[in-house]
Every structure is written in structure tokens, then in C-alpha cells.
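Students often ask why inverse folding is considered easier than folding. One informal answer: many sequences map to the same fold, so there is more than one right answer. In these notes we will look at a single instance of the problem. The structure comes first.
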């Protein structure tokens, strides 16, 4: 694979080859690429001016704008991903910072032009095609956010602008937590006994922190990234408690002191006001208004039923944890105890189960997974190259043999020093430009430990490919926002649908490195699902607290949201800090997970019930957003969603033994 050092933006945009080339660029020649930044900005200006000066028509207005918008979106997303991937020279970092600022300005220029919005509205009014009217309506709502008019629009824009400012401050304060020492714990070498049990990786980072500060010992910066690991593994109870208190940023008297306390209130006030402008009583009601469970009564009925289904098993597990804790003279489990004693109980059980890595490794499984995708989704994978410089990434060209469409995939599978988890990112979605359909460009990042490949890592890997295939195979080529035909509460369903292949013996048999019997497979699944009732129970408790916090929020209340939520979580033994919750930084109510964390469980239950005999048929028909009919009606043709049973979900409808 040859990376591209220079790319003429103007000519490749004109001949549509830019979609197959831009993701391969190397930004090492600062002088050249700084000049190209100016060219990109001028190109956008020129294209928009051409749209505004031309007669309003589908070709002159919509198709031309779709191309310039697709390019701007591609450029913005590529710079974002390259900033996260780049670990080379200082000059490249400086260029990417500049490019990031300019790309944001370009995006605002494209999406906030009132003259373009008027053109779109005019085109919608004069077009006769009902399908084209729907497409234009999607763009006006999802891209331009132009579904409000007059006074309401001004109010909405005001609250939205205030919300963005609050979120920017929230994210900055979280960055300061990671960089500063307010949440730090220094353990001198003489107190090594306090940190017995912590992982080698955790101790290595803490030792580096201490060396950087010229002290002998360990420095732990406690945050969302490591608090669960510390509380799950540190044997010293006082140290676990200290870490928890640092995580919550509390004084000795229990006062919550994070800078984000006031910011959280501002975020929730502005979200509440946006909901009021859109004729909803509160923000929770607004978020769920287009979900399957679209009222608080439906949400609570669902949560009640799921909680009741797992409560008995979950409480039995908690009682067993309490019995283990009593051996350490711990009579009442605090949040910093729950994770420690659950981990001890979990290890005790998993030591008796069949070991996953006896049958599976990344090196042997991944080529077989590709082969499975090729055969069952009618695709062709071609490895273009491997770049250790770009986060040890692999570059694939994936061809849909049914349509001829192309997806370029940048795949970074291996664990990073600063773990970011697993995620998929749409750098560019395919779009029909004239007679051509542009290539889709996807990025998938995982944190796979090749020496200790796990069932969880396999699940995450397949899950993220599910997201990429959803975009590639089911994307509406004329819609701005993918999956416009159904709501965000089911956005995870296609990836969960694919992920549940790990519970299919025939699939797992194909990707194993040595023959695995049905009995050993069931033993593996049983080990993974053994405590699932406990996980589900705790997540329901957590998600209900957050949902009700939004539901009952009052803008003029003097309550300390951080303290109130923490108190409720502590009563359930849950470690959670709303001041560090990244979901608080979601600004679009149509895709905001913050109040509705339970949707992961809901969509997973539905995904599990969909037949996986013909994967491509499901992606082409059920998940295909080209079909502009009610998604719930379409879903009912594939699966009965009227009665979701939590225990069959936990057992994955397999003859396994769980707690």
C-alpha cells in the first residue's frame, strides 16, 4: 500500500476520485498541505456560491450541495481520526490542530448558511416527487436543524448555543482532571502494602507518574478510566475507599467540589429549555418521544418487568458476595466493596470453566471471521497494507459483490497505552454523486490483547464490524443522517445482531484454532453469562436513577445534582460520577444516550430474536434505511417484540447454567 504525500484537492474533487484517495494521505509536507487547506476553503466557498446563483432544481441545488456537504463531512471526520491516530512528529501534530480548526469552520460554513437553507425549502415546495420531499425534509431537519420557525427557532438556537458552551466547559474540566493532581493519590514506597492486588499495568502507569514528579513511589490519577479497576483489585479497603472519594472529588466532610457541578446544572437547564421549546415537559420526554418506548409509563413498565425477572438471582449473588466480605470482617458493602468482592466471586467461578484462549486466538480467528463475512454477506476483502505508524492499522478495500459498492476500512485492532475502548467511526458514508456512488470510508478501533484474547474482545470486534456493515450495506445514499427511518434507541441493534454470532456454535466452531465440542462451547458461554443477571440488575438500577434525574429535573432547584445522584448510586453500591460522564456532553437530543442507558438492553433483546440464517437478507431488508416506512412495522415482520423475556436473553436461548 502506498500512502499519498500530495493530493490535488480541486482535481480529485472534480473527478470524484477524492473519496478513494483522501484517507490515504500523509500530512508530512506542512507547506504543501497548508496550501491545500486554503484550496479546500476556497472550493467550499465557490461551490456554495454556484448553488446560490443557479436556478433552484434537484440537480443544481440538492445534488450539488450533497457533494460539497459529503466532502466537508469526509474532511472533518478524517482530521478527527488522524488526530487520534497520529503519534509521529510535532510538525504533523501542529498541522492537524490547525486543520481541525479550519475543518470545524468549514463545517459551520456548510451547515449554517441561511441562503442555502432557503434554497432547500424552496426546492421542497416546488418539487412534485413525494420521495424527494421526504429526502429534503430529512436534510432540513437532520443537517440544518431547520424544523423550527420564527420565535421558536430563535429560542431553540439560543438554548442550543448555551448548551454547546456548557458542554465545551464540561469537557475542558474533565481534561483538567486527567492532567491535574486534584484527583491524585501518592503512595510512597514504604506504603506498598496499600496497593497490593493492583494490576501490573496500573502500577506501571502510577510508577511513571511518580518518576515524572520526582518522587519515590506511585501516583494514581483517579478517573473514569481506572476507578473500577482499582476498586475491583486493591486488597486494602482503606485504599479503595480513598480512591473512590478522590474519584468523586469530595472533601473530608463529603462536600462535592468538582468544577463541573455548576456546569452539569447548566447543561441540564439548557436541555430542559430545548425540550420546552419543542413542546415537551422535560428532556427525558423529548429524548424518548420517537423511541419504541415513547412514554415514561412504557419505560418504567419495561424496566419494572426486566428488574423483577433478574432480581432474585441478582440478590443471591449479592448475598454470596456479602458472605465472602464477612470473612474480611466487612459487614456492610460500600460501593468500593461491591466491585472487589464481585471480582473475587467471579474469579472463583471462572477458574472452574473451560479457558477461552485454549480454543481462540486473534491471529487464527480473524482471518476466519473475514472469510465468514465474505461468504455470508457477499463481500470481498482485499488487504491494501499495514501501517505501524498509524496506530498499527490495517487498510482494507471491501467490495460489495452484489452492488459493486466499495468500502475502505482502516482497522486498528491492538491495545493502546491509553485505552480508548472499541468503537467504529464513519469517516465518509457512501453517497450517489451523479451516476457514481462514492466509496464509504470506515475506521474501527479495538483494544485487543493478542496474548490474552478474550470472549469479550471477540464480541466487541464483531460488534464494531456490525456498525461498519450497517453503514455500508444499509445506508440510504440520499439521506444526510443514516438510519433516518428509525429511532436512535435501536441504533445498536444491527451491531448487536451480528455480535450475537458468538453465541452460535456453528460460527464459533468455524473460527476456533482447534476443534471445540458442543459441551465445551456451552461451558464457555455459561462462564460468560453466569453473572449476567447481576449485571442487568445493576444496570437497570443505574439507568433508572439517571432517567428519573432527567424526568424530575427542575431548572430552579438548588439541589446539588452530583451529590444527589451519587447518594442514590451509593445506596445501590454503584460507582458513578455524573461529573465525569461523557454522555453529559451529548448535545443532539435525537442521539443522546444520557437519559436512556437502558436502550442497550432493549435493542439487544430484540436483536437476539432476529433469525441469523441469512445475514445479508436482514441487512438489505430490515436494516435498510432506504425503506421509508415505519420501522416498527417492518421490525414486526421479522420478530415478535410484544413479549421480551429477560431470562431467555441471559441464557441466549441455550441449554446453559447461569447463576
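Output (designed amino acids):
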Amino acid at each position: 500500500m502506498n500512502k499519498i504525500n500530495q493530493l490535488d484537492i480541486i482535481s480529485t474533487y472534480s473527478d470524484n476520485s477524492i473519496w478513494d484517495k483522501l484517507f490515504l494521505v500523509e500530512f508530512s509536507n506542512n507547506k504543501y498541505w497548508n496550501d491545500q487547506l486554503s484550496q479546500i476553503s476556497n472550493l467550499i466557498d465557490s461551490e456554495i456560491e454556484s448553488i446560490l446563483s443557479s436556478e433552484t432544481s434537484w440537480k443544481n441545488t440538492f445534488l450539488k450541495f450533497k457533494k460539497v456537504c459529503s466532502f466537508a463531512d469526509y474532511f472533518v471526520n478524517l482530521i478527527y481520526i488522524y488526530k487520534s491516530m497520529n503519534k509521529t512528529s510535532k510538525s504533523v501534530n501542529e498541522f492537524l490542530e490547525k486543520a481541525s480548526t479550519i475543518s470545524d469552520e468549514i463545517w459551520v460554513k456548510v451547515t449554517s448558511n441561511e441562503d442555502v437553507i432557503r434554497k432547500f425549502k424552496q426546492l421542497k415546495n416546488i418539487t412534485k416527487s413525494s420521495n424527494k420531499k421526504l429526502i429534503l425534509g430529512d436534510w432540513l431537519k437532520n443537517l440544518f436543524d431547520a424544523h423550527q420557525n420564527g420565535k421558536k427557532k430563535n429560542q431553540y438556537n439560543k438554548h442550543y448555543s448555551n448548551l454547546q458552551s456548557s458542554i465545551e466547559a464540561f469537557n475542558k474540566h474533565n481534561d483538567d482532571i486527567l492532567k491535574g493532581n486534584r484527583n491524585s493519590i501518592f503512595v510512597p514506597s514504604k506504603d506498598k502494602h496499600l496497593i497490593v492486588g493492583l494490576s501490573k499495568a496500573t502500577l506501571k502507569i502510577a510508577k511513571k507518574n511518580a518518576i515524572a514528579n520526582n518522587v519515590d513511589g506511585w501516583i494514581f490519577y483517579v478517573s473514569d478510566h481506572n476507578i473500577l479497576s482499582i476498586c475491583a483489585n486493591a486488597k486494602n479497603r482503606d485504599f479503595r475507599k480513598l480512591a473512590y472519594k478522590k474519584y468523586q472529588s469530595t472533601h473530608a466532610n463529603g462536600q462535592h467540589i468538582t468544577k463541573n457541578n455548576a456546569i452539569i446544572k447548566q447543561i441540564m437547564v439548557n436541555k430542559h429549555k430545548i425540550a420546552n421549546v419543542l413542546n415537551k415537559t422535560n428532556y427525558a420526554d423529548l429524548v424518548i418521544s420517537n423511541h419504541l418506548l415513547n412514554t415514561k409509563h412504557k419505560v418504567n413498565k419495561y424496566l419494572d418487568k426486566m428488574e423483577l425477572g433478574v432480581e432474585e438471582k441478582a440478590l443471591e449473588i449479592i448475598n454470596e458476595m456479602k458472605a465472602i466480605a464477612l470473612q474480611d470482617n466487612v459487614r456492610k458493602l460500600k460501593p468500593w466493596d461491591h466491585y472487589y468482592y464481585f471480582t473475587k466471586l467471579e474469579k472463583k467461578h471462572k477458574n472452574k470453566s473451560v479457558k477461552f484462549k485454549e480454543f481462540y486466538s486473534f491471529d487464527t480467528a480473524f482471518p476466519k471471521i473475514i472469510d465468514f463475512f465474505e461468504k455470508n454477506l457477499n463481500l470481498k476483502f482485499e488487504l491494501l497494507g499495514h501501517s505501524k505508524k498509524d496506530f498499527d492499522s490495517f487498510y482494507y478495500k471491501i467490495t460489495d459483490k452484489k452492488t459493486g459498492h466499495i468500502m475502505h476500512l482502516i482497522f486498528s485492532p491492538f491495545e493502546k497505552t491509553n485505552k480508548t475502548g472499541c468503537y467504529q467511526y464513519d469517516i465518509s458514508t457512501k453517497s450517489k454523486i451523479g451516476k457514481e456512488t462514492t466509496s464509504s470510508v470506515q475506521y474501527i478501533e479495538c483494544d485487543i490483547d493478542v496474548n490474552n484474547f478474550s470472549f469479550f474482545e471477540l464480541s466487541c470486534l464483531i460488534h464494531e464490524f456490525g456498525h461498519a456493515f450497517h453503514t455500508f450495506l444499509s445506508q440510504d445514499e440520499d439521506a444526510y443522517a443514516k438510519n433516518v427511518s428509525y429511532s436512535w434507541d435501536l441504533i445498536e441493534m444491527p451491531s448487536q445482531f451480528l455480535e450475537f454470532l458468538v453465541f452460535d456454535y456453528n460460527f464459533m466452531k468455524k473460527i476456533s484454532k482447534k476443534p471445540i465440542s458442543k459441551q465445551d462451547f456451552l461451558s464457555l458461554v455459561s462462564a460468560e453469562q453466569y453473572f449476567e443477571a447481576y449485571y442487568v440488575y445493576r444496570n437497570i438500577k443505574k439507568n433508572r436513577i439517571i432517567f428519573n434525574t432527567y424526568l424530575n429535573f427542575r431548572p430552579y432547584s438548588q439541589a446539588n445534582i452530583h451529590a444527589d445522584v451519587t447518594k442514590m448510586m451509593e445506596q445501590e453500591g454503584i460507582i458513578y460520577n455524573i461529573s465525569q460522564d461523557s454522555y453529559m456532553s451529548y448535545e443532539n437530543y435525537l442521539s443522546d444516550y444520557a437519559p436512556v442507558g437502558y436502550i442497550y438492553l432493549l435493542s439487544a433483546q430484540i436483536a437476539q430474536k432476529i433469525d441469523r440464517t441469512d445475514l445479508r437478507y436482514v441487512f438489505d431488508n430490515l436494516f435498510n434505511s432506504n425503506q421509508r416506512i415505519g420501522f416498527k412495522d417492518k421490525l414486526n415482520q421479522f420478530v415478535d417484540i410484544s413479549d421480551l423475556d429477560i431470562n431467555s436473553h441471559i441464557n441466549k436461548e441455550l441449554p446453559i447454567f447461569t447463576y
